[in-house]
From TrEMBL:
Membrane disposition: Multi-pass membrane protein
UniProt-annotated location(s): Cell membrane
Coiled coil: none
Transmembrane residue ranges: 29-48, 60-84, 96-118, 124-145, 157-176, 182-203, 229-254, 266-285, 297-317, 323-343, 355-378, 384-406
Positions of the Major facilitator superfamily (MFS) profile domain: 26-411
The protein's name in its UniProt record: Bcr/CflA family drug resistance efflux transporter
Keyword Transferase: no
A Pfam family hit: MFS_1
InterPro entries per record: Efflux_drug-R_Bcr/CmlA (IPR004812), MFS (IPR011701), MFS_dom (IPR020846), MFS_trans_sf (IPR036259), Sugar_transporter_CS (IPR005829)
Source species of the chain: Paractinoplanes toevensis
GO cellular component: plasma membrane
PANTHER family assigned to the protein according to its UniProt record, in alphabetical order: MAJOR FACILITATOR SUPERFAMILY, POLYAMINE TRANSPORTER 2-RELATED
One GO BP annotation of this record: xenobiotic detoxification by transmembrane export across the plasma membrane
Length: 424
């Protein structure tokens, strides 16, 4: 057998010691990780088309119904901080399956929710369950992969993250043609059951008992917060996400109200930005054949700042109309797509001994910092200029943090590949 690099925390997979995972099984594991990554976006976005009907059916205001979405995001953010350390102490499978079970139970109860207060509470529980899937999937990537291999896999998972929010509202809309908003939660229940079955059948335990860390939650979080490079990287990821969130939250108003696009035209424009984002995450795999994750991260953020500045100038000067807005905006989204897989790969490579806790803090910061961008667009007025300000600000903050705090040129260049080795 060819010599391979040794991981800091070798995976506990039920093959012979020292044996590499066969290619076919590796593909199935990665496929299940993709399903787990999709659970959060599906939970958030599938019921968006049903918000007006929920408002009518439960005799609630639009603002109060939108709080059920906020509840889901809260569950996703705080759930990761809880589940991540649990997965470091108990192993990956038990917290993961328990989290998916919570999601399934909450989805079933949403189907029969009698009022908005109950529905909102259940949506928080759904978020908690989806958080387990998101954070543990990321921790499993770190258990099995490192360096360039981790960055490549994160690129593939970003494809799921990019596609799921686009498909989820469409699926929700199709469900509403056949049934009520409660049917959306029936579909989420079925999806949760399918993901749980696939996880139980395919996904192995990747954290051996000897590598588990019971009773060290505070110590692990303390160590993470004292790692300047790690803290800088998770802030970089959060600021980059804020540029993306600014686009998502402001695009509907900008394109439909300011530029007069119809709902169908807006859908095409939004899909165009998503294609650029997704395409960049997949192009990252090719770039990794020549450059390191830190080189790509630094280059993409610098290019994103330039694109954001062009976007801001053209928006303020009102030059180029819709095309003048879309070209630099799509360019910035593509640069975010290049940054998104590499920042987590570098950050998690530094803390393989507490991958669950490290992934939890990363995810919570991404959601927290990124979600702040949505109200900021409204604070600045809600138009194209407002969106451009927040997009540029997010990219500028990410770039400054990278070079002032992380200092990527001082980091070692990890060139090793995919050492998926079994160790008992």
């Amino acid at each position: 057998m060819a010599k391979t690099e040794t991981l800091t925390s070798p995976p506990a997979i039920d093959l012979s010691p020292g044996e590499l995972i066969p290619t076919g099984r590796r593909f199935r594991i990665v496929l299940v990780l993709g399903f787990l990554t999709a659970l959060g976006p599906l939970t958030i976005d599938m019921y968006l088309p049903s918000l007006p009907t929920i408002t009518t059916d439960l005799s609630a205001s639009a603002a109060s119904v939108q709080l059920t979405l906020t509840g889901t995001l809260v569950g996703l953010a705080f759930g990761q901080l809880i589940v991540g350390p649990l997965s470091d102490a108990l192993g990956r499978r038990l917290p993961l399956l328990a989290g998916i079970a919570v999601h399934i139970l909450a989805s079933i109860l949403c189907v029969i929710a009698p009022n908005l207060a109950v529905l909102g509470t259940l949506r928080v529980l759904q978020g908690l369950g989806a958080a387990a899937a998101a954070v543990i999937a990321m921790a499993i990537v770190r258990d099995l992969f490192n360096g360039l291999a981790a960055a490549r896999l994160f690129s593939r998972l970003m494809l799921v993250v990019g596609v799921a929010p686009i498909l989820a509202p469409t699926i929700g809309g199709l469900v509403l043609e056949w049934t009520s908003w409660r049917g959306v939660f029936v579909v989420l229940t079925v999806a949760g059951v399918a993901i749980m079955a696939a996880t139980a059948l395919v996904l192995p335990e990747t954290l051996p008992p000897a590598a588990r860390r019971s009773g060290q939650v505070l110590r692990d979080y303390g160590r993470l917060f004292t790692d300047r490079v790690y803290v800088g990287l998770i802030l970089v990821a959060g600021f980059a996400f804020s540029a993306l969130f600014a686009y998502v939250s402001g695009s509907s108003f900008v394109f439909q109200e300011e530029y007069g696009l119809s709902e169908q035209q807006f859908a095409y424009v939004f899909a165009g930005g998503a294609i650029g984002l997704i395409g960049a995450t997949q192009f990252n795999v090719r770039l990794l054949r020549r450059w390191s994750p830190q080189q790509i991260l630094g280059g993409s953020l610098l290019a994103g700042v330039v694109g954001g500045l062009v976007l801001l100038v053209l928006s303020i000067a009102d030059i180029g109309g819709l095309v003048g807005l879309l070209v630099p905006l799509w360019f910035v989204l593509a640069m975010v797509g290049l940054a998104m897989p590499n920042a987590p790969a570098i950050a998690l490579s530094r803390h393989g001994e507490a991958a669950g806790t490290a992934a939890a803090l990363l995810g919570a910061v991404q959601f927290g910092v990124g979600a702040l961008a949505a109200p900021l667009v409204g604070v600045f007025g809600g138009g194209a200029v407002s969106m451009a300000i927040v997009v540029f600000g997010g990219m500028a903050a990410a770039t400054i943090t990278l070079y002032a705090v992380v200092r990527p040129r001082q980091l070692p260049v990890e060139q090793f590949d995919t050492p998926i080795v079994v160790a008992h």
